[in-house]
């Protein structure tokens, strides 16, 4: 059982035409609505999310669902959507769901935003 001190943090930094979304901590049933709202809000504003998962310690199916919904919304709007610096814990879940074949991955924010 997780303690109350394990909160998820979400911050957004502008990087050219992109919005770099930094997630830290656990992305689970309790925190995924915040992730969903943040990502969909950026897309509604026409911004292109680059989601930094380097500090994600745990992600469950609800967190994955938030990423998938944002990815699908981005595609419908003709916007790019990528994941950067995916933590080993998050990558394991993405691979289990075979989403490592769906999402665009980059090693750095710079690689995700180059040439845009």
Give a brief outline of the structure.
With 116 residues, this protein is α/β, with parallel strands linked by helices. It contains four helices and five strands; from the N terminus they run E-E-H-E-H-E-H-E-H.
Question: How are the SSEs placed, and which strands pair?
Answer:
Layout: E1 9-15, E2 18-27, H1 32-44, E3 48-59, H2 61-77, E4 82-84, H3 88-96, E5 104-106, H4 109-113
Parallel strand pairs: 2-3, 3-4, 4-5
Antiparallel strand pairs: 1-2
Helix pairs in contact: 1-2
Q: Could you report the average pLDDT, rounded to the nearest whole number?
A: 93
Order of helices and strands: EEHEHEHEH
The secondary structure category is: alpha/beta
| Rg estimate, integer Å | 13 Å
Distance from N terminus to C terminus (CA atoms, Å) equals 43 Å
Q: Let me know the number of strands.
A: 5
Enumerate the strands of the largest sheet in spatial order, edge to edge or round the barrel.
1-2-3-4-5
What would you call the shape?
globular
User: Given the structure, what is the number of helices?
Assistant: 4
Query: What is the helix fraction of residues, given as a range?
Result: 25-40%
Could you name the ranges where pLDDT drops below 50 across 5 or more consecutive residues? 1-5
Major β-sheet profile: 5 strands, mixed
Strand-residue proportion = 25-35%
